[in-house]
Amino acid sequence: MSRFLPLSLLLLAAAGGAHAAPTPITIEQAMADPDWIGPPVESAWWSWNGTQVEYALKRKGSPVRDTFRQPVAGGAAQQVADDQRGTLDAAGRVYDRQRQRMAFVRNGDVFVRDLRSGALTQLTRGNERASGVDFATDGGVIWNVGNSWYHWTPGTGGIALVAQLKAEKNPADAPKADVLRDQQMRTLETLRRDRAQRDALREQGERWRQADPTRAPGPLYLGADVEIVDSALSPDATHLVVVTKPKNFEDGRGGKMPLYVTESGYEETEDTRTRVGRNGFAPHALWLADTRTGQVRPLPLDALPGIGTDPLAALRKAAGKEPLKGNRGVQVMGDFMGGGIRWSADGTQAAVMVRANDNKDRWIVSVGNDGGLHNRHRLTDPGWINWGFNDFGWMADGRTLWLLSEESGFSHLYTQAGTARPRALTSGKWEASAPVPSADGKGFYVLCNRQAPHDYEVCGIDAASGQVRELTNLDGVEDFSLSPDGQQLLVRYSGAYLPAQLAVVPATGGSARVLTDTRSAEFKARQWIQPQLVAVPSRHGAGVVWAKYYGPAQKEPGRKYPIVMFVHGAGYLQNVHQRYPTYFREQMFHNLLVQKGYIVLDMDYRGSEGYGRDWRTAIYRNMGHPELEDYLDGLEWLVDTQQGDRDRAGIYGGSYGGFMTFMALYRAPGTFKAGAALRPVGDWHQYNHGYTSNILNTPDIDPEAYRVSSPIEYAEGLQDHLLIAHGMMDDNVFFQDSVNMTQRLIELHKDNWSIAPYPLERHGYTRADSWLDQYKRILKLFEETLK
For the CA atoms of the chain, what is the radius of gyration? Predict the structure, then answer.
């Protein structure tokens, strides 16, 4: 699977040629199982010596992912045989300070690889999954299995239990005060004697445990009224930062989703998430545990600036709610959001990311071994704090933090020494993300879109000077990793019709050596319409709205073309870029539409990723309104510049795109003659808490935001043709949304609408026949109403 074409030739091939006529596509081919395209490289990592890369590919006709090895210097990739899988390295590795060893978790077990000899040492072999692997200050390795932390010493090869956390009452604690208990113990000498003997036995056992180096330490008790959420052990194995939440916290009433097509033949149900505002997130608490003494103490958050101030006080008052009392609830962000707990390499202090449950504040605090908690950085926003761009960590000196922050309006990289004001290493109207410290500790590598919002490259940053330099010229970088010796970058990149592939670039920048091209011969042979990346002028004060335009190479003079506008999903997503789109089927469908005489526009409306904080929060408490303005501006641009026919315009999209299709047809009746709302949100009261409360707060204190933003409130406006399509097993946007909308349209006596349910599909369809059925209906809708 190795291809050593010059990069320019490969990208030209991926583009389908500069002037070649597009190959006709059928709806059946566009919606077929994507195996016909060829698998993307889903994940990739360096081998221990940097001479090979290892990566995973989906097997054709199967959900199995096989692993391949590709020599960097040349030669064909080889599939790793089943009996050789034990020799693999893994992604997510950590390096020791000298970068002479790496540790990683593979199949739940912990391994250490010597980077000088290649020797692989397996530390665990079990059925429970390890995590949190790191190097210890003594050269050993630490990791956890559940709530137990272990330490491997390289000299002896021994593995010792360092700490075991238990959400239970400490048996050494005195019982709670109780009048009846006191009476029993005062009047009955036998009970007093039995209790004294038990206490003496326990205390002696604990003394023996502490005096005997062959014994494991006793448990660390956090109390029976909490549940353990997360923990992190210091590299010197002396302290743990622990995160808990209240035990049996009630999230609120969950949903029960009916399942109709089942193996049993009977109707079944599946428990699903709670709705927004149904109690929200459980408040987290921080603790510091000493593994040597067994002492566990809480870490109060009172020192966090603004923790006791309610940013939603005015809304709460307007809704007739009681004012907030005490500190706001918080969450300690997990690794999957770039947050979590980070210990300095010497184990003297930890940094912890804390987020307010009302979404308005994010703090980074430091915790010393003395139990002191200090605020290091606060990011506050009257809209909401981004779920992304939260990466942070320690510089090599163990005292200086590096972090991402949107405080300038765009995500940028900062360093902070002590409590000094953070120093910006990057700046400008572009976004830095996914930072990786350089091997020598003197700089960073980040994803960047400096040249244009849609152009993603790897940038190198010198920490001393703040100099930023683009190191790649691939246009569509997805992610990257640094080689073990720090001299090369393994880059996963893609293009409009090029699923993610691998290339290697010198860490100092230079020409890319392409390693893979996994596309099928059939797919590579086709010619495609290249989307034009265009800046649509906003007539509503938004500057420009970036979009992808699909149209014929040559338009017929005087002819007006029917219009289809596509709306991407959200969550926080960018679709106008030079990468392989999430919506690759839709892109082929757009080729088909152009083939049939349409022009198509796909916009990164306000709320989309890649354009900074103001673009993201423009929809705060007002979803569906700025975005509709952007689409109306896009329609005007098509009419003014691309011979678009204003009277023959349609719109479609899924998830947030389905929501926007509702809003377009209901709030701008007559503008779009037809729309297809796929897996659409019809009422934001029905959606999840994490996403919705960011943008609309909660229904109890901000009912107006939900009324203004929910399509069901505007259904009276429908006068054009509407198709609703929804998976009945959707556990993200519930099928109930479309059922409720169906009932509302019936009540309003609306005509020219229909609904297509898909009994075995969830939010992201997985079956080619469902894709085909849905898009045949969309195509028929447009052909019948826009032609």
Answer: 29
- Sign (positive/negative) of CA torsion 69, 501, 498, 584? positive
For 171, other C-beta atoms within 10 Å of its C-beta total 11
- Reported as half-sphere exposure (CB side, CA atoms, 13 A), residue 583 has a value of 24
Largest separation between any pair of C-alpha atoms in the chain? 107
What gap in Å lies between CA 37 and CA 496, rounded to an integer? 13
The reported pLDDT for the residue numbered 407 is: 96
Give dist(CA 521, CA 524) in Å, integer: 5
Distances (CA, A) of 731 to 271, 279, 321, 652, 698: 9, 19, 31, 21, 20
CA distance 655 to 460: 36
Do residues 589 and 625 make contact, with C-beta atoms less than 8 angstroms apart?
no
User: pTM of the predicted model, to two decimals?
Assistant: 0.94
The whole-angstrom separation of Cα 120 and Cα 114 is 7
Could you say which DSSP state residue 622 is in? -
- DSSP assignment letter at 715: G
DSSP 580: P
Say which DSSP state 275 is in.
P
Q: Please enumerate in sequence order all residues whose Cβ is within 8 A of that of 78, keeping only pairs 6 or more positions apart, or say none.
A: 68, 69
Q: Which residues of 352-370 are buried (b: 16+ CB within 10 A; e: fewer)?
A: bbbbbbbbbbbbbbbbeee
Give me the phi and psi of 458, to 5 degrees please.
-100, 130
Instruction: Single out the residue of 639, 560, 657 nearest to residue 603, CA to CA.
Output: 657
Q: How many CA atoms lie within 13 A of 204 on its CB side?
A: 6
Cβ–Cβ < 8 Å for 341, 241: yes
Average pLDDT over residues 752-768: 97
Residue 369 binned pLDDT confidence (cut-offs 50, 70, 90): confident
Q: Residue 371 has what DSSP assignment?
A: S
3-class SS letters over 348-414: CEEEEEEEECCCCEEEEEEEECCCCEEEEEEEECCCCCCCCCCCEEECCCCCEEEEEECCCCCCEEE
Torsion of CA 76, 91, 41, 119, to 10 degrees: 10
For 383-402, the pLDDT digits (tens) are 999 989 999 999 988 899 99
